Amino acid sequence: MLIKAILISVGKWMDRQLSSSPPSDTIGDTKIIDGKEYWNMGDLYDQDNWRYIGPATYEYFINLYQEDARVFYALSLEEDVDAIHSEGFYNKREAEEKLIQYKEKRNSNMLKK
After folding, report:
1. Greatest Cα-to-Cα distance within the chain, rounded to the nearest angstrom
2. Rounded to an integer, what distance in angstroms lies between the CA atom of residue 96 and that of residue 6?
3. DSSP letters along 7-52, please?
4. Which of 2, 9, 23, 70 has a CA-to-CA distance to 33 between 20 and 30 Å?
5. DSSP element (H, E) containing 103
6. How far apart are CA 62 and CA 86, in angstroms?
7. 112 Cβ neighbours under 8 A, 6+ residues apart
8. Residue 100 is inside which H or E element, if any?
9. In this predicted model, what pLDDT tens digit does every residue of 85-97 receive, in sequence order?
10. Model-level pTM greater than 0.85?
């Protein structure tokens, strides 16, 4: 009887602890870690509960092209087989930052000549 009372009181205490936390703002969000996609499905107490969905796929590509002596980069939603080189990214912000880096590097190399 004493053990049952202890278990009930511990259970009630745990419920109060879990329910006293503010609900998570990230429920329903996804994130990509090391090429794997995770989804926050939440739990009964509206707390984070991240679950593995599967391998992430690239959403944006920087394609490198060459025409005669001219080299240029383009941001697109698909990998171009006609490009000399393609690099994939999971989100647009990362792709745009890398594209800016490529363009700055190309411009600095042109100034050195």
Report:
1. 88
2. 58
3. HHHHHHHHHHHHHTSPPPS-TT-EEEETTEEEEE---TTS---EEE
4. 23
5. helix 92-112
6. 6
7. none
8. helix 92-112
9. 899 998 899 999 9
10. no
